[in-house]
Amino acid sequence: MAVNAAPSGRTPAGRLAGRWVPWLVIGLWLVLTVVMGPLSGKLSSVTTDSAADTLPASAESTKVAVLEDSLPGGDDNTFVFVYHRASGITDADRAMVERHYNTLATRYPPKVVAPTGEDDEGPQTSPSSDGKAMMFTLDVSTTYGAPEAIVGPLRDAAKDRPAGLELDVTGPAAVDGDMDAVFDGIDLQVLLTTIVVVTLLLIITYRSPVLWLIPLVAVGAAALTSMATVYLLVKGFGIVVNDQNSALLTILVFGVGTDYALLLIARYREALHHHENVRVAMIHALRGAAPAIIASAATVIAGLLCLLVADLNSTSGLGPIGAAGILCALVAMLTLFPALLVVLGRRIFWPAIPRFSTAVVEKPGLWVRLGAAINRRRWVATLGSLGVLGVLALGLTGNTGALREQDQFVSAPESVTGFTVLRQHFPELGGQPMTIFTRPAHQERVLDVVKGTPGVAVAIPGQTSGGWADISVFPTDAPDTAAEYDTIKRVRTAVHAVSGAEAMVGGPSAENLDTEVTASQDEKLVIPLVLAVVLIVLALLLRAIVAPLILMATVVVSFAAAFGGSVFVFDTILGFKGIDYSVPLLAFLFLVALGVDYNIFLASRAREETARLGTREGMLKALSATGGVITSAGLVLAATFAVLTTLPLVMLIEVGFLVAFGVLLDALLVRSVLVPALTLLIGRRMWWPSRLSRPVEPPDGQRPRADDEEPALQR
């Protein structure tokens, strides 16, 4: 029966007060955005990508980095200048290299290492053995700025060269500078691109010239609030936020917030056909949509908070960062968004304004026909879906090796090409230097042990300061390769065996090695925890055991298929040289948490309808009612994550593509075909042990109805 007015018992004063509630909510959000706005702009000032902040304090390379920073000149930025000429270095070239060095030594005193004689060992050797290159290293104090600010002026200072003499400025600091340049302005780029993508999709979805703006305003308020909240978390609790997590925060809030908006608008549009008063219609829409939205948010938040057990600070930091974003999106879409819709009334849906009518005719559509087809061919739908997922999962046999830092760039910058040139002309200095700290009394012994370790090209004793002596070690293998990592492990084993030396091995490649090892350990800890937590949330929501297990199984299979299909694309089509260490865990978390979302929306509606119609009709009704909106939500979420593929960093492209592909796979195949087919096959046992799993007692002594038979009232 339609509800045309406020519930009985409400006084005119009560109805009048109710009219002010949406305005009060909007006013409170305006105050909140005014307060939080300035804080949101400060988030970029507390982001960090340094290894000492990212790695756990217990990592050996972290201890080296902290100790190095505490010593005089230990935090200097090291650049390597590699000059090369295909026909061979000339006398004029040598003179130019000397002049460049003298200029830079004067400009950036005093930590400069000059070119040395040809007979000296070490990274300061000037000419190459093939006579086609020269090089020198330059240690620049951090007082002159961060690598990103220094590398440009250094390159500009060496532009005046004889024709044909090429120069590459490389080294650990140059790589860091080029990496920082990639992230420079990335938050604004992601935000603007995401807004454009979401706007276009909302316009296409609603086919309204104005309705699209309302969810965008609400999500924008949620994004601003979430950034300010994360800034406060960093200042108050020391949470680590890197540029990657900052970009993911924007994607999460816009993607998930827009999904919530789509689900609520679908229920609200239905309610407007049955209720003349827009406030009453919104109350009914919230009663229908809010439980599923809250359960969805709780699932994602619970999954994200599982990251707190990770040792990698950048990973554990994403937990509260993402949770804050989801929570802000949830609150905004259940308060500000409904308030805006109520204030604007039915006219916001123009030109397709939903009219109040007690006789709303539901026309059979695509999802009704799909449900009927699945019902007729349950085994075909089940096995066919599993077959597609299985074929995609075969892609996991491709290249899933770790991605080197030098291979992170879509277009290799000068610092990366410089490493290639350095290895070509100075093969003995082809790897990134390791830094070893040892007690001064044991320096000679440690030095001898290191020189005798396979894979070590050069080992040079350094300065003694603060009770420590440092040794620079150059491996023979290319940076961030398995061979170089093996050398680092051998060096660590060798120096740790020197009693009393307290030797520690660090450096850029050692940091990358420790990061990969820690990330692998985090995967083994976090993934089972996420599965357990999400399963518990599903069980509480659906008040069943079988349904949560089935839904979790479909999501895990979907993840394997999405990962396999993505690996094929990365390896065969895009030519990426591996998978970044952070991608598997991030993709698993997002796809499991967000993939379960769509199953929650479908299963919660199916459970609601099953109590009235039975399992078969309940699932078919849920599929027809939620099919369009969930598919739209999947497209929006996939598109927001796909924004990451426009960025010039392989890791972000991999995360964006994998999650976008997985969300589409889950929304279009798993949730639309596989889950309904499995539910129809399993029948009421899907809801075991809740009361929905028990046979319905037939009225008036009629024969018991089969589980998949339509209820009499539906015939």
Describe this structure in words.
Its main location: membrane. Residues 110-132, 693-715 are annotated as: Disordered. This protein has helices spanning 12-40, 51-54, 60-70, 91-107, 147-157, 172-183, 186-206, 213-237, 243-274, 278-305, 313-334, 336-344, 366-376, 378-393, 414-425, 443-451, 482-496, 508-542, 546-573, 583-613, 615-642, 650-682; strands at 77-84, 133-140, 166-170, 434-438, 456-465, 468-475, 504-506. Helices cover 61% and strands 7% of the residues. The longest helix has 35 residues, at 508-542. Among the domains are: 17-46 and 208-361, Multidrug efflux transporter AcrB transmembrane fold, CATH 1.20.1640; 369-397 and 519-693, Multidrug efflux transporter AcrB transmembrane fold (Up-down Bundle); 434-506, Alpha-Beta Plaits, CATH 3.30.70. A hairpin with a 2-residue loop joins strand 5 and strand 6 (468-475). Residues 1-17, 111-123, 701-705 and 708-715 have low confidence and may be disordered. The radius of gyration is 31 Å and the shape is elongated. The strands form two sheets. The protein has a four-stranded antiparallel beta sheet. Strands 2-1-3 form a three-stranded antiparallel beta sheet. Helix 13 crosses helix 22, helix 18 (508-542) packs parallel to helix 20 and helix 20 packs parallel to helix 22 (650-682). It starts with 11 loop residues before the first helix and ends in a 33-residue tail after the last helix. The protein is of the alpha+beta class and 715 residues long.
